[in-house]
Each structure stands twice: as C-alpha cells, then as structure tokens.
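Think of the structure tokens as a kind of shorthand, similar to the way a musician reads notation: each symbol stands for something richer, in this case the local conformation of the backbone. In the example below we present two proteins back to back. Begin with the first one, reading the sequence and then the tokens, and try to describe in your own words what changes along the chain.
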Amino acid sequence: MKRVLVADDDPVSRGLIRDALRSLSYEVVEASDGEEALLKMAEARPDLILLDIEMPLLDGYGVLQRMRADPILSHVPVAAITAQALPADREKGLARGFSAYLTKPIGVAALRTEVRHLLSPGAPRR
C-alpha cells in the first residue's frame, strides 16, 4: 500500500484530501505544520508528500529545502497544495523543486489523477 503524507495547517483541507486518498486505498499520514511534517516524513517514509506552502513554524518551501537535503527523503515526489494560484507562483514552486503544483480548492478528480501520476513508475522526481 502506498503511503502519502498530507501536510496542511487547515484541518478541513487535510480531511478532504485524506478522504479522497483513502477511498483509493492509500495510507494517509497527516501533519499540521512544517516541523511536524519533517518529523512524520522521517518516521513514515512516505511514497508521496502533499505539502501546503503557507504553514506555521516552517513554510512549505523550508520543508522542501530541508527534505531535499536528506538523502533518505530527497527522491520522494512532493506536490505543492496552495492557494497561491498565479502563474508566477506556479513557476516559482516548480523552479524551487516541487514535482507538481496544485491550487486550492483542489478538485477530487484532479487530486486523484495527479497522485496516481506522481506515484507511477517514471514520474518526475525533482
């Protein structure tokens, strides 16, 4: 079973994503801030990370930078989940190392499609 870490400070967003992924039989691990996300990554060793950019304690860019420096986690694909929806925001996110960039509100069908893609063999890993 594939394991997905969902890191978002909004419990409603986390719940919607969790339910959408569990309905596809993914194991879901949750974190509510950037520091907790790093701890859960080290413990759970997820196959995919869905990471909010705007979180307390450590934002998504800080989390991404620290995990990419960790040889154990550096290969894991990370999708941004964010309300920052301008084209420049997307370009910045992808340039800084996100594997995908999803804007809120995230549709369930689009979420499922992107998760399947990122977990498929040969998917991009930044």
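Once you have a description of the first chain, move to the second and do the same.
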Amino acid sequence: MSPLKSRVVVITGSSRGIGRAIAGACARAGARVVISSRKTEGVALAVAELRASQLEAAGLAADAASPDDLRRLMDFAIKNYGAIDVWINNAGISSGYRSLQYMSPLEIKEVVDINLLGVLNSCRLLIPYFRERGGIILNLAGRGGKGNPAPYQTTYAATKAAVVSLTRSLAAENKCYKISINCIAPGMVDTDIFKDIATCPETESRLALMPVLLKAFASPMPDVERLAVKLCAQEPGKHTGMCYSAEKWTRYLRALAAVPEFIRVTRQVRRAKRL
C-alpha cells in the first residue's frame, strides 16, 4: 500500500526529531519528500539516509523564520518534483523550561519568529498556489495549543496557541477551495529537544522528573507518524480547520504504572532542595 504515492511533501525542520520521523514515514508511504532545516549538514544527512533506503527525497537548507528562504524552499520543491501537494510546518524551537524573565528579548523573538511567523509566512506563500491546484497544509501544535496553562514554557505555549488559532482562521477563509489546513498535536514525544534544556533557578531541580514524565506520557513516535501520513493522504478540502491529536488514552495506563517512580524521584528532589 502506498497511500501517498507520487505526492510531494515538504517538511520544515525535518532533519531530526519529529520532522525527520514524519519525513521517513511519508517517504515509506510513497511520497516524494523535501527535507529542510537551517543546517546544510543535517539536511544532507537526512536525505542520504532516505535515499540509502531507496526512498525518494531531496533537500534544501532554509530558515523557517526567513520569508526569502521559504520562497526558495517552495521554488526548490516545484523545480525538483513539479508540484507541491502537502506542506508541513514542523520547524520550531523550545523556549526551554524557565520563567519568562529569564529569557532575553532576542530569545523571545527567535521563538516567535520560527514558531509563529514562519507558519504565517509559509501559509501566505502557499495558499495562492493551493487555491489554483488544491493542497494540504499541516501545522504542528504543541503544549499550550489548547489554551491550557503551560508554566515555564510561556513563550513557546503562546506561539502554539496562536498556531492553532491561525489554522482555524485560515481554514475558514479558504473553505470554498480544495485546501485542507489542519493541525497535528503530537503531545509530548521523546526527542532530542529534551536534551540540554535551558532552565532557571526555579526549575533546575524539576528536570529530574523529565525521564519519568516522558516514560509516562510521551506519545510513541509511530503514532505520530501514522497520524501524519493519514492526514497527508486526505482529499484536499474535505476536512479542514481541525486539530488532530496523536495522544491515546493508553498513556493514562502508563502514567498509573509510573506513579511509584514519580513519587520516588519527587522525594529525591525535595531532599536535594533541603540540603
């Protein structure tokens, strides 16, 4: 079965992490995949790995925060494969796990530029193109996307709530066209984003709980991959303005199983604070 046979799928931020996994899943489903991230070496490696598995892939280094780079990426995909069928706005950076006052104005700007303005600018480029031929835009949501509090991740959460909002608004603007504009909410996924997390004095000790939380609540990467392929295979315009979650009810069973370990690590953290 090749649900994405011959479809051209462009994925920003796809040299590693969730984006890289989605790229591999789409390629295995028959898509011609365009890899992109800010680092040339990472793009080249991801493309080489896919091609070594006899999968169709090309790549271009591009900064999702740059409208000019996004235009170059769009032109590159069309030049290489003749069209774009799906564009996935996956590129994003974390604001770490710290209070807002510990972030510099430059750090705040970088998170907003990549996580929010990058999505807006790519949609601005793609919508006129997709209005003529049809297409699918998938935006990656994240913690805070549902409007729930996300303490110590305020900047990141604000961008993800905005991404969900812009997805629904753009879908409503384009509901009379063969365009699907949807969100994927992968939930917590165990990737390298959780390595070397920037913290502040209020949160540094809490990082000891991160492995337990990932074990208890993280969405398995294959679940995220399957959801992405399913949404990429949809008929453009049939379903739009939706936010699809990769989280399953079984994570609550894992959470229950992790309670003893959570209690043990919490006690260790409290003891360390007293010392």
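Compare your description with these statements about the second chain. The chain has one domain: 8-195+218-249.
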